[in-house]
Amino acid sequence: MDRLDTMKTFVRVVETGSFTKAAHTLGISRATVTQLIQQLEARLQMKLLNRTTRKVNVTADGAAYYERIVPLLFDLDEIESSLPSAASLPRGVLRVDMPSPFATLILMPALPQFHARYPDIVLELGASDRMVDVIGENVDCVIRGGEITDQSLVARPLAQLQLGVYAAPAYLARAGTPRHPRELEDGAHRIVRFRWRSSASSPYVLQRGEETVTIRGQHVLSIDDGNAYLAAGLAGMGALWLPDYMARAAVASGALLPLFAGWQIAPMAMSLAYPPNRHLSKKLRVFIDWVQQLMAQQSC
Question: Which residues, including other chains, have CB under 8 Å from residue 149's CB and lie 6 or more apart?
Fold first, then answer.
C-alpha cells in the first residue's frame, strides 16, 4: 500500500466513523485498515484518531489533516480524469440510492441510453425508500421525494411531482365512491398510509378554490416502500396519494381510478443529494446531468 492508499483509508474512517465500515466500503479487511492508519500515524508522528471498542473520534490534528487532504485527493482525481485519453470517458463505480418506483418506472427504461453514452461507469443501485447513511455506506448520491432536511448534504432539485388521490374499482365498489375528500374520514373508508423515514405522520391537504381540507384518514396498513404501497392500492386496501408517474399506467388500464376532480394537492419536490466532500467527481457530474435531463423530459 502506498501513501495515497493510507490517505484514502484515513478519509474513509473519518467519514464512516468506523474501521469496520471503512473496510467494507473500501473492499479490504479491517486489519488492513488498522495497519494503514498505524502506518500513517507513524509517518506523521502524530495521533490522528482516538479509538475505543465502540467508536472512533478524530483528534484535533486528525481533523486538520482531514481538511487538508480531502481537496488534495479530489484534485488528484480531477487531474487523472482531465487527461486527453480520459477526458471523454468517465469511469469507475458509482453508488446511487433511489425510491423503488422511480428506479422501476423512470430510471430503468432509460438506463440503456446512459450506459451507451458512458460504458465505463458501473452503477451500483439501491432501490428502496429507507433512510440511507450516505457517508457511512459510501453512497455517491441519493434521489429522494420530499424535502431533504439533512444539512450535511448538497441537494439539487430534479422535479416537482404532481400528486393525486386514487383507488381501485374493487375498493370503491365495496366502500363507495367518495365525492368530497372529507368522506375519507368516514368510518366506511380506509386509506393506505405511506410510512415516511421519520416516524411523524403528516396529514394530506387538498384545495379547491378557497376551500382547504386536511385529511388523516383511517388505515389498516402502512407501508414504507413505494412499489408495495402501489400494490396495496391495486389490491383494494384503500385510497392512495400517488405521484402522477406512479399512477399513470394503472389509470390507463383501469386498475386505478382518480378521485376528487378539481381538487389540487401541493406538488412534492424530488431532489438529488450528495455529500459536499465528494466534490462532484466526473462520473457523478455526468450522472447528475443525465438525470436532470431525464426528469426534464418526464411529465411527472
Answer: none
C-alpha cell at 119: 460504458
What is the per-residue pLDDT across 89-132, written as a single tens digit (0 to 9) for each?
788 888 899 999 999 999 999 999 999 999 989 899 999 877 77
Residue 111, C-alpha cell as written in the block: 438506463
**Which tens digits make up the pLDDT trace of 60-74?**
888 888 888 887 877
What grid cell was written down for 41? 500515524
C-beta of residue 220 within 8 angstroms of C-beta of residue 237: yes
Answer whether 142's CB lies under 8 Å from 118's CB. no
* Rounded-to-10 torsion of CA 48, 52, 57, 60: -40
Residues linked to residue 268 through DSSP beta bridges, in sequence order: 161
Residues 6+ apart with CB under 8 A from 139: 95, 96, 97, 126, 132, 133
Q: Answer whether 13's CB lies under 8 Å from 49's CB.
A: yes
Q: Per the structure block, which three cell numbers stand in for 77?
A: 482525481
Q: What is the DSSP letter of 107?
A: I
DSSP H or E segment with residue 115: helix 108-117
Alpha carbon distance 296, 61 (integer Å): 46
Give the domains, in start order, of the chain with CATH numbers. Answer: 3-81 (1.10.10.10), 92-159+269-297 (3.40.190.10), 163-266 (3.40.190.10)
